[in-house]
Amino acid sequence: xxxxxxxxxxxxxxxxxxxxxxxxxxxxxxQRRKLLFSFENIDRMMERSQKYLKEHGxxxxxxx
Length: 64
Hints:
Layout: H1 13-28, H2 39-55
């Protein structure tokens, strides 16, 4: 059974103007967000994970 193809919504009027304005503003002034984890933190997590798997015969904590 085939799925119906739906039309793509199109912004018009004030909504379209606001969207374009905000997109241009974000392009000029991108918001930089601080990473929640540093690469050092990720490396330590990977080391702990590999150590755990090695100690438990390759089985994760939720394995049956």
